[in-house]
Description:
outer membrane lipoprotein receptor (LolB), chain A; 2 domains; 12-stranded mixed sheet; 12 strands; LolA/LolB/LppX; signal; DUF2092 domain-containing protein; DUF2092
Amino acid sequence: MKHNIHTALLSAAALVLIVGPGLSSCQKAGQENATEQATNEPVATEQATAGTAGGAQDASSQNARALLKAMSDYLAAQKVISLSYDSVFEVVSEDHQKLQLATSGTVLLSRPDKIHTTRKSGFSDTEMIFDGKTLTILGKGQNAYVQAEAPGTVDTLVDQLRDKFHRQLPGADLLMANVYDALMTDVTDVKDLGSGVIGGQECDHLAFRAKDTDWQIWIAQGASPYPCRYVITSKGVDQAPQFTMTIRDWKAGATAGQADFSFTPPAGSTKMDVKDLEKLKDTSDLPENYRIGAAK
């Protein structure tokens, strides 16, 4: 806890120092009316302040990077992971109204090449199973499924789902073999914001900036630094919509339970050709009446 108090003080110092030069300018104007010697004092103060600010910001950035790397190393070391999640995906209408789509689901991951996910929302009820060779996507509402050969790892599956099938893995960024490298691509600014609490779990709260997005992550403190919440803000889209994923029921290793990645078609289900995946509407990431528009 002492470590986080120290981090919070560094962050607070950085904020104070952003305001500092403006205050010093006011002081300088008053002192110029007094003596020439006093005129020089604010300059020295500002220089000292600037140096302190740079040091505090560097320390905050280095600490945030170290915490993110520790989480990445911890995740990579876990052979089996299971979790439940709640997510909110924001969209913006043509008349600039921000709307939220809420989803819940589960993830069971066995590195390096097996994953079983579920996702349920008001417009979809999906199960996805990957056994290292075959990808199965089941639309429970239509009681229909598609299967496709997709040999490789979970990392390669993320790319295939996005590029070939136009689907996403829940929290894909957090499931990669090297989460640190995946998340830090194009990052230009890093901050450690101190402590936060998610679902009763005390976390380290980190904030990052990249060209097109800002993102934040809350990482559980202690021996198991797993991600508790992940937020992405799209800066290049009108109203800056966000994606938020909150993780609960985190388990790793032996506590994650038995992993089963076999697929048995439900009674009465229909197998569809993979080219007809778009007809399996309740596996879509967006409701049927939504469409993707242009960036602002």
